[in-house]
Amino acid sequence: MAAIDIKKPKKVSTATVVGAGLLGGYITARESGIRPLGGVVLAAAGGWAVRSWLAKTDVPTTVGLTALYVGGFGASHPLAKKIGSWPAVLTVTGVAAGAAYVLSDSK
User: Fold this and answer.
1) pLDDT in tens, 72-95
2) Inter-residue contact 80 to 88 (CB < 8 Å)
3) Any stretches that span the bilayer, and where are they (predicted)?
């Protein structure tokens, strides 16, 4: 049986992972009706992104990007009351993924 070949941390597109975590977590929670299951998707993608940020950048940048990712998740809830669920999720995902690209992936 062959071992699973996991992509090296420096080769991972963290903007894509961030997008998958925030959008995928929202969709999973919404469609399954099980909010903690969406949290599992969010946490798994976040962990995968942190692994790469630590390899590509420094600790302060990793902490900042992680705070933005988690903060975006938190901010999407009150924002959804003002602009709607999908616009809120897309907004925070765009901000977090854009930051991940600029501060990590483009280097």
Assistant:
1) 999 999 999 999 999 999 999 999
2) yes
3) 12-29, 83-103
| DSSP 8-state assignment for residue 106 | T
Do 54 and 62 touch, CB atoms closer than 8 A? yes
C-alpha gyration radius of the chain: 14
Contact 42, 22 (CB under 8 A): yes
Take residue 27 and report the two structure tokens written for it: 């969709």
Taking the whole predicted model, whether its pTM rises above 0.85 is answered as: yes
Q: What is the spatial distance between Cα 58 and Cα 79, in angstroms, rounded to a whole number?
A: 30
Rounded-to-integer distance, Cα 33 and Cα 12, Å: 30
